[in-house]
Structure formats: structure tokens, C-alpha cells
Amino acid sequence: MKGARILRFFATVILVVSNIIDMTGQGAYLPPDKPKLVIGIIVEQLRYDQLEKMRNRFAENGIRKLLNEGTYFQNASFQYMLTQAAPAHATIATGAEPSVHGITSDYWYVPLREELVYSTSDNTVSPVGGSYEKGLHSPVNLQSSTFADELKMSTNRKAKVFSVGLKENPVIFSGGHASDGAFWYDDVTGTWMSSTYYIDSLPGWVSDFNAMKYPEVFLTNPWTLLKPREIYADCLPDTNIYEMGFNGKNYFPYDLDKISSRSRSKLGRDYSLLREIPMGNTFTTDFAIKLIEKEGLGKDDITDFLSMCYTATDYIGHRFGPSSLEMADAILRLDSDIEKFLKYVNDSIGKRNVLLFFTSAHGISEIPGVLESNRIPSGYFRQNQALQLLRSYLNAVYGEGSWVKGYSDKQIFLNRTLIEDAKLSLDDVQKKVSRFLVQFTGVATAYPYSAFEMNDYSSGNLKKIVNNFNPQRSGDVIVTLNSGWVEKDDNYVTNHNSHYEYDSHVPLIWYGWAVNRASITRKVNMTDIAATLSSLCRVPVPNGCTGEPMFELFR
């Protein structure tokens, strides 16, 4: 009997050890109690299917390393209507829908001021290290706390929290309210900057980094294909009629020096081009590595947080579409940036000490012309024409007047003061506008404000609109377009900003620390990221969080 008990004991020990090895997928060790550094890598405009399409072309130690060694959630999506950068980063950070955190879109119309308001605009702050208008930004409009905020407060502000990226609103919302520093790109001066919301002056290492003038290097070398042309065989032809390109040219190679050179009347270089080429992501990677080094992230037992926001793919997708050589090359170059970053982090901090998630802020629709060439219904919704006809219709029904105050992101803002003075029912006017707009080609639905003011919907497209609805910032009538249709914009050939799969379904990979190798097919909401981070790091969930922890990461 005694011998049998001894045998059972040793069998149990062997089983436990085997489970540890199996759970980690990284060798026989128990991971630290908490990660030393949490890193969020958020790519603006990367569809789930694009990652899958390029998967076998990635380098061994870049995105493929994340896929091979991490937990891959294959059905992660945003559950709201207006899939844009600002709502996405706010949703990931807060674990709440736009209806709760308040960032309903990149811009929203304020009828009382008769102007569009940018999501991070704040005239009470001043620029630090850059041009004036580029520095008037803060998280003042974000109405919920973020994971980073809760991490900061739970450690008595000892946790270090930073965010970096070329565009200010992803950076600001990812970092939250209590961040130690948020740095974005000033495309006027070609330097990294911030605002007085965070700091009074740039750290010395940032000034030193700016002094290196890396944008000059990136913008004086040509953009050529990273790999042999046959690697891109499943992309659209390099010369096609659908893409916009730069200065009328839409095929490789791109003479960036020439494109970024200003006209004789405007001396100097146009540094904004760096936002629209893959080298902008490389610039972000180099800056993030320098930040980790100089700020000492992940060097003690208190969990730190860094958000990295890659935005170049968004501009490239808008100009060239998701099936272009340019987009494929941008993704392959992003893979090289990820490879470089992972090597630095693993070498300097260690994989077992870092918890990383990799995801995207939204997808994008195929170019309508490409869809139409394949006999798939598509087109451009010409909102300016629709708005003009709507004004004429309301004048005919109610008499001459400025019945429409403004339009933004498929939302009509009515002149409520005029409607009240005319003793009209606001609900009736909203319904008339809705019925008028659904007659336009490409419009799927048009809902009045009242449809969402007092109602909740448990599922479907109406639920996604409700998740995006905020009484203070949403319009009187909300329009949705048919799948494959996008709003007309002379600056782009295609867009995102819908609830459809191609815009809302994004990749989500967890890597490092105690993360196992796994592939998960169940549907998860992007609000679940903040809830998961809070649970893993043992801090309170953000105060508006509606997401749930991803239980697969808690084995």
C-alpha cells in the first residue's frame, strides 16, 4: 500500500511538471507573478484576412513569431458602427463602447458652435516641442478611465505609462488620462512632440532623437518593393486605374525625395509624407525602442505600459486600396519592424517578463471600382449631393430656412432651435429626413435619433449603432450604407467606417509572459482586451468597462 502511494505521488509530480511545460509552451518555468511590461501594438487599418493572406510571407521572427508562439483570437471584432481610429483606440483602452467612453468618431459636429470638433482637441493646453496647432491635444473628451489609468492608480503612480505613434488621437486615447508621456509626430517640423497636458518640456533623449533628423533620411531614399515582384503576384497590377497614388503616380518605384519636396513658393520639405509610407512605421519603431531604453520600462517589479500605434497602413490603404502592391509591401515592411522590435524587447527585458498584444484599429473596404469590375454591387455615396437635395426638400416642406446644421460621418445634424421656433415636432422632422434619405442609391437604412434615445437592442446592426450612439455627440439621423459602398472623398479611393466584416473584423494576438500557444475561433469583442489586461495584471477594470476577460489566457 505504502509503495502504491509513493508511486501515485511521483505520478502526480510528473503530471504537474508536464502541465507546466505544456501550459507555458516556453520550457519548464513558472512565469513571474505579473509582467514587468505590457505592450500594446495597434495597427491602424489591418484586416484579419490581410494578415492571413500574408502569413506565409512573413519573416520567421516577426508577426509569424507572434502567431506561432502566442494565442491567436481569429474572430475578434469591434461591435459598433463608426470604425475609425479614435473610437477604436478608446475602446481598446477603456473596454467600453463609444456610447460609454464618448469618442464616437474622429470628429463630431457641435451644433451650438456650428463646427466639427476633433476628438482630441484641447485649446487649454500648449504644444511641447513642435508647431502650435499640432500640440493642442489631450484626452479631455474621453469620458472613461483606461487600463493604463487603473494601472497607474493601483501602483500609487509608480507604474510608467507611455504611448507613441505618428497620429495624435490613437496615441492620446491609448495612453489614457494619467499617462507619463504621449508623443506624436509633428508633420510640420518632422519631429516628435507632445503637449503641456503631459509635460512642460521634452525629455533630453527626445530632443536628441529629433536632432538626428531621421525623416530626412527616410524621405530622400526611394520607396521600392521590399521583396521580389513575384511575391506580390496575388495583388492588383501595379499600374491600374483604381488607385490614387502620389502626385498622380501610382506605381513603383516612388521618388520620395521629389514627392516630399515643396514647390518654389513653399521652401523646405513636406514632412507629412512620412505618415503615408511604410517608413513612418519604422520611424515609430525606432522611437519606441529608444523610449523603452531611456525611460527604463520593464526594469523593476512594478508593471509598466507602452502603447505603440502604427498608422502608415491607414493612409496607404486609403490611397491604394487593400489589394494593392503598396499595401502588401507596407505589411511586409511592418513585419520587419515587428521583428526588430521583438528582438530588442526579448533581448533587453525577456519574453517571460513582457505581455504583448497585437491588433488593429479597423479594416477597410475594397475600392468600389475593383468590386464593380468583378460585377459585385458597390459605389460611392455622394453625401454632398444628398445633403443639397435634403435641404431643398426640407425647404419645400417647411419653408425656407437652415434646417440642416451639418453633416459628419453619415450623421445629419438638424437645426433644433429653428425646428422649435417653428413649433414643429422634432421627431416628425427626423422621421421625414430618414424617409427621404433611404431613397438614395447606396443607402441601406436611415434611423432617426428617437430610435436609439430610449431603446436598447440586444444584437444585430441596430445594436452596433446603439453602441456608437451618444446623446451629446451623435446626429439627429444616422445613415448606413450598403455593403461595398463608401462615402465619396476626393482625397481617398476607399474608406472604412462601417459595421461590416471588412471594417470591423481584426486580428488579435497575445504573446509573451504566461501566454500559451493556441488558436481560438470563438467570437470576442474588442472591449474584452482591457478587461483581460486588468485581470492578468490584477488591477481594477476601467470604470466604464463592459468587456469580459478572455478566459483562454487564464489556464
What does it look like?
The protein has 555 residues and is an alpha/beta fold. The chain folds into 3 domains: 1-30; 37-371 and 499-553, 3-Layer(aba) Sandwich (Alkaline Phosphatase, subunit A); 379-483, Gyrase A, domain 2 (2-Layer Sandwich), CATH 3.30.1360.150. The protein has helices at 2-24, 48-54, 63-69, 85-94, 98-101, 147-154, 168-175, 204-211, 214-220, 256-260, 279-295, 312-320, 325-348, 368-373, 383-398, 416-421, 426-437, 450-453, 460-467, 501-504, 528-537, and strands at residues 37-43, 71-77, 107-110, 115-118, 127-128, 161-165, 181-186, 191-195, 304-310, 354-360, 379-381, 404-408, 411-414, 443-448, 477-481, 485-487, 505-512, 518-525. The strands form 4 sheets. A 10-stranded mixed beta sheet has the order 5-8-7-6-9-1-10-17-2-18, with helices on both faces. It has a 4-stranded antiparallel beta sheet with strand order 12-13-15-14. A two-stranded antiparallel ribbon has the order 3-4. Mean pLDDT is 93; it is low at 1-28.
